[in-house]
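Input chain follows. Return structure tokens only.
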Amino acid sequence: MNNPTPSSSTSGWHRLRVVLLARPGRGQLVIAVLCALLGFGIVLQVRAVRTEEVLASARPQDLVQLLDSLDQRNERLDSELSDLRTLRDKLVSGQDSERAAAAERAARQTELGILAGTLPAVGPGVVVRMTGPVSADLLLGTVQELRDAGAEAIQINSVRVVASTAFVPKAGGGALVDGTSVSGPTGTVTISAIGQSTTLASSLQIPGGVVDTAAADQVKVSVRQQDTVKVNALRPLKAPDYARNGS
């Protein structure tokens, strides 16, 4: 077999370089866009099929529980929308607008303090206990599910969960939450969440949800609804390093 001469090798690299650096034509761009759209459609189809498989294998009582959870979320959102419309009407009408604005500012300060973790919170909710090798991914998924279900304040062991909270795997197993070790290869993690207790509990127990995911990871989960849940861990108020008022 004849080995390629230096001139032919150089010529081949030159042609490859020309192809890579050439500006794509209109036809190539159209094909690229169509391929991207096709890939996106395939991803959506796979997700839809997986969701349908989970629902198809669910028990009737699980489906009823899921529907109840969705109905409760819709009711909560409708109630919040109604409250905001009422407040808007009061402020726009000018009737006791100054008093209403002052009351609204005070209420917002309390709400922001609870959301930012600078104020303690108490109210109905759930207490979740996870026993076993609780991972950072499992904790993150649990917090996201609770937030989606309307949780207004969350605490993991002694760590207050806020918008900037980070979940990081710990060497040797377990998880760090904002740099604090909350779990290891064994042990129990306690998550306290304030919100509509039935909705919060249902959101964790839907088919394919947190409880099922934890069971697959050999983690035992108990979910208790309580009339009074305390979230006492506080976070110091920290000025953002980069974000500024954009108004």
